[in-house]
TrEMBL record:
The keyword Nucleotide-binding applies. This is ABC transporter. PROSITE patterns: ABC_TRANSPORTER_2 (PS50893). Coiled coil: none annotated. It comes from Actinoplanes nipponensis. One of its GO terms (molecular function) is ATP hydrolysis activity. Transmembrane segments: none annotated.
Length: 295
């Protein structure tokens, strides 16, 4: 179990992580969602022992991971900068990763390098943006680390490479369950992988729950304008749009069975809201009042 208690990260006057308390059960895939600058990388850096919190604690199975060699070896943190030597060839980078990590699977690393068509003779400095990201995915997945943190690893990867990444991640996770935290802005693409969703906003925890529970927070109601408005009255409306006489509102809050039945009887259509749409609504740009109300 990973436990964060009142975790705070500051850079001078900037509060990047603002007193987050969170428990992560082992062997699940977590989606960490937050708008730009919301504190995701800062939070993940502390989790991976790359940075000490300014206040609060992190423990992994009751132990502080900071400068704990065994726990650090058991954590793979892949981020934009990759933390490899640019002049090294891919073969050397993979070899080095294997020496560092007891759980490294060299055969799987070779398989992944083939999947992403990485030429082991190329130097890291010669890789394109997408190829660098693919190398990050190889390092992150072949590490088979009990705690695997992938912080926006897809940057520059084309749609085919990203699809291969999601496929490989899911297959390897099913064969070798471990705790995986994915931070991403391509939410809808990856949402199918998340078992739990963590949303942070301006450094604070907005919510942490099962993805199914999260999805049930929103419902899109479509139908004749008057009927939709009558149904939406008194509920929290996250968004609305109209086309001719047809109106659609996105409502916040799960509907009870009898409410859903009443909506259908009134000629309304109910549809789930995508994780990304819900996230966008919940963390609406410039709408501090809304996110505060949801805390
Ligand atoms: N090294 C640093 N020095 C000063 N401020 C920093 C530093 N790193 C991050 N910040 C600030 O801390 C806040 C959180 O940044 P962080 O990178 O953790 O957010 P993020 O959610 O990962 O953002 P993004 O989605 O844009 O990558 C931002 O206001 C950012 O400007």
């Amino acid at each position: 179990m990973i436990s964060l208690r009142d975790l705070t990260v500051r850079y001078g006057d900037t509060v990047a992580v603002d007193g987050i308390t969170l428990d992560l059960e082992p062997n699940k895939i977590y989606g960490l969602l937050g708008r730009n600058g919301s504190g995701k990388t800062s939070l993940l850096s502390v989790l991976a022992s790359y940075r000490r919190p300014c206040a609060g604690t992190v423990t992994i199975d009751g132990v502080d991971p900071f400068e704990n060699a065994a726990l650090m070896r058991a954590t793979a943190f892949v981020r934009d900068s990759l933390d490899v030597t640019d002049q090294d060839r891919i073969a050397k980078v993979l070899d080095f990763a294997g020496r560092l990590r007891p759980t490294w699977d060299a055969g799987y690393a070779e398989h992944l390098a083939d999947v992403f068509e990485l030429d082991r003779r190329r130097r890291v400095s010669a890789l394109s943006r997408g190829q660098r990201s693919s190398l990050g995915v190889v390092l992150g997945l072949a590490a088979r680390a009990p705690l695997t943190i992938l912080d926006e690893v897809y940057l520059g990867m084309d749609a085919g490479a990203r699809a291969a990444f999601y496929r490989e991640l899911l297959a390897d996770y099913l064969a070798h369950p471990r705790t995986i935290i994915l931070s991403t802005h391509l939410i809808e693409e990856v949402a199918g992988l998340f078992e739990q969703v963590i949303v942070i906003d301006r450094g604070r925890l907005l919510l942490h729950e099962d993805t199914d529970t999260f999805r049930a927070r929103g419902v899109a109601v479509t139908g004749p304008a008057a009927a939709v408005e009558a149904f939406a009255a008194g509920r929290t409306v996250l968004g609305e749009q109209s086309l001719g006489g047809v109106r659609q509102v996105t409502l916040y809050g799960a509907l009870a069975d009898h409410e859903a039945e009443a909506a259908r009887t009134a000629g309304l259509t109910l549809a789930p809201v995508g994780v990304q749409d819900l996230f966008v609504h919940l963390t609406a740009v410039g709408d501090t009042a809304r996110t505060e109300a949801l805390r």
